[in-house]
Amino acid sequence: MTDDRLLSIGELSRASGLTVSALRFYDRAGVLAPACVDAWSGYRRYAPAQVREARLLAGMRRVQVPVAEMASVLDGLRGGDLDAVHDLLDGHLRRLEEGLADARRELGRLRAALGPSRAASAEVPAASLLGLLGAVRPAVGTDPELPVLMGVLLEVSEGLTLVATDRYRLVVAGPWQPAGDGTTVSAVVPTAEVDRLAAWLAGRQGRVVVTVLADGVVVRAGDRTGDVRDPDCGEQLRLDAVDGDYPDFRRVLEHGHEVCEPVDADVLRSALDTGEDLVELEGVTVDRSYLWDAVRSVPDGQVLLPAHGVIAPLVVRSPDEDLLALVMPVAGRDR
């Protein structure tokens, strides 16, 4: 005799939003088994409490949670381990966000491969741009086998951001947008061009407009009026760009590890004053010259160490977080 309190597969389908075929699939996969199966007819019957589980399955199906993780979520729910359930869902959300960011980056590369199309401009005080160049310049790479690192990344989105790295340290100057937030246009300006720009800016008053084009960068004195492609449009400096893909600095910034409290000022001063090539800050060993450069790049910045036992960069961060300098730790004093 059929228990009147049980639901047919069709009733569960209507209550949960899952199709009948999907419910059959999840039964075969061992994710959501019926409360009972009629031995004579083979009809599946479900308990009313399984409506909640089926609705959760429908939601996870919509966001493409793998079947094995669906099963783990329901197991955690049945066992009362909600922390494990939230951890599983949070992990899937992170993968979705990373996948979306990867897709946006790849589409950006595809658009760039199609040839010149867009340009983007940012207007900044000349003295501010000179300061940003000075902040990132020490971190520019010198390895000729990595030519794209032998320059500064200039990126325009809602503002102007400059980035430099030699793989052992990274400096980001200016506001930066998380991956996928808005449209960015960027170019890598080689070291010689960076120094030429710094010389052009030295002592200059007023504002300049930085325009990133497909084949380089134009910096023009004055405001945004006029066309930078016109060589007679005001006093301007044209800079060549380096071909190649710049490393994804956002991955480092967005997926950083937990940091501890700021390093005590006396401890930092003692480390910087030592004559050693490598210095130790509360168990984290770094190159002293890199630490000096990072501190100079971020005036009034806080020096933050990674959480105990975590291998992650030392961070020097300005109060407004518009200047960040990261220094990778080294293995130890025998390096």
Task: Describe the protein's topology.
Layout: E1 7-8, H1 9-16, H2 20-28, E2 36-37, E3 44-46, H3 50-62, H4 67-79, H5 82-113, E4 120-125, H6 126-136, E5 151-156, E6 160-165, E7 169-173, E8 185-190, H7 191-201, E9 207-213, E10 216-221, E11 236-240, H8 249-254, E12 259-262, H9 265-273, E13 278-281, E14 284-287, H10 288-297, E15 302-306, E16 314-317, E17 323-327
Structure description:
The structure is a single chain. The longest helix is centred in the N-terminal third of the chain and has 32 residues, at 82-113. The chain has helices spanning 9-16, 20-28, 50-62, 67-79, 82-113, 126-136, 191-201, 249-254, 265-273, 288-297, and strands at 7-8, 36-37, 44-46, 120-125, 151-156, 160-165, 169-173, 185-190, 207-213, 216-221, 236-240, 259-262, 278-281, 284-287, 302-306, 314-317, 323-327. The protein is an alpha+beta fold. It has three domains: 7-101, Multidrug-efflux Transporter Regulator, Chain: A, Domain 2 (Orthogonal Bundle), CATH 1.10.1660; 120-247, DNA Polymerase III, subunit A, domain 2 (DNA Polymerase III, Chain A, domain 2), CATH 3.10.150; 256-327, no CATH class. It starts with 6 loop residues before the first strand and ends in an 8-residue tail after the last strand. The radius of gyration is 28 Å and the shape is elongated. The strands form four sheets. The protein has an eight-stranded antiparallel beta sheet with strand order 8-5-6-7-17-16-15-12. A four-stranded antiparallel beta sheet has the order 4-9-10-11. The protein has a three-stranded antiparallel beta sheet with strand order 1-3-2.
